[in-house]
Design a protein that fits this description.
The chain is an alpha/beta fold and about 280 residues long. Helix content is about 50%, strand content about 20%. The structure holds ligand C2E and magnesium ion (MG) (3 copies). This is GGDEF domain-containing protein.
């Protein structure tokens, strides 16, 4: 009986695998033309000053709507874009659209601090990356300090002299940096101080359990305290309930982001939010 079960499991696994490979290939093929066909667009999720409840920034989040595949979430296609190198063109396109939209946002609310853009580690390995993003920012009439580049903690862990240099060059040009998904990638405190970081984003995984889960409460508390003592700003990601906001405010977390405040918005809706900001 155990043997049969094993065999069934194997077949099931195989089916799943071939389906995934097929899906992967389909995504890869369609993604190649996605920019050209105008299928990619950006949503913007507001970041709130927890004390004043004002929107201080937006994070750009890419969206892909394909005729055959429907809406494909970034968690599905970013990895494929990275593995195939498509992320280089895609990343430049995202940067450009985000800059253009940020100009619109600033026209409505001149006090907006920055636009946060997620950048993949593969983009940093492109030798032209620093020059390319600088060109895009200048072409759009923005300053590097208008841009916060979000890199994941995993990226920091792939430490090399080369990616550190790219980050330091960008930092010297005036770009801001945040570490995304902090706490999930085993980043060592040593790497943390080596990189030119401005902001730490506490991963949703820790925010989820607040206030019931004492471990998550203590971890969030420690991350906020650590960020403060190293002079980083701190953003809590994935706030869904008022109780989480209350707690984060009580431990002096600066900035909050999450469905409790707002889901990611179209540019039109983001501009509406700014009208009453
Ligand atoms: P991330 O940068 O950590 O972005 C936060 C993700 O959590 C977003 O998912 C956002 O919609 C979602 N989120 C925000 N608040 C809440 C909440 O309160 N509850 C829940 N359940 N979710 C919340 P999204 O847009 O699907 O993006 C997923 C990931 O894909 C991003 O995680 C980022 O790593 C990557 N990604 C998105 N856009 C880009 C991009 O333009 N470039 C690159 N390289 N990666 C991107
Ligand atoms: Mg992010
Ligand atoms: Mg994150
Ligand atoms: Mg996250």
């Amino acid at each position: 009986h155990a043997k049969n079960l094993g065999k069934d499991n194997f077949q099931y696994y195989n089916k799943q695998l071939s389906l995934n490979v097929h899906e992967q290939l389909k995504i890869e093929q369609s993604l190649k033309d996605a920019i050209k066909n105008g299928e990619l667009y950006l949503n913007y999720q507001p970041q709130y000053n927890l004390q004043t409840h004002k929107v201080i920034a937006f994070e750009a989040l890419v969206r892909w709507q394909n005729k055959e595949l429907g809406v494909v979430p970034p968690t599905k296609f970013i990895t494929i874009a990275e593995d195939t190198g498509l992320i280089i063109d895609l990343g430049k396109y995202i940067f450009d659209v985000a800059c253009r939209d940020f100009i619109q946002m600033k026209k409505v609310d001149s006090e907006l601090h920055y636009i946060a853009i997620n950048v993949s580690s593969v983009q940093f390995k492109d030798p032209d990356f620093v020059q390319d993003v600088l060109k895009i920012v200048e072409k759009n009439g923005l300053k590097p300090s208008d841009i916060e580049i979000e890199v994941t903690e995993r990226y920091i862990m792939e430490y090399s002299e080369m990616n550190l240099k790219a980050m330091i060059d960008l930092k010297n040009l005036g770009f801001r940096f945040s570490i995304d998904d902090f706490g999930t990638g085993y980043s060592s405190m040593n790497y943390l101080t080596k990189f030119p970081i401005d902001v730490i984003k506490v991963d949703k995984a820790f925010i989820d359990g607040i206030p019931e889960d004492n471990n998550n409460v203590q971890i969030s508390k420690a991350i906020v305290a650590l960020s403060k003592s190293l002079n980083y700003k701190v953003v809590a990601e994935g706030i869904e309930h008022e109780k989480q906001e209350d707690f984060l405010l009580s431990i002096k977390c600066d900035i909050g982001q999450g469905y409790f405040f707002s889901k990611p918005l179209s540019i039109e809706d983001a501009l509406k939010v700014l009208k009453d900001n």
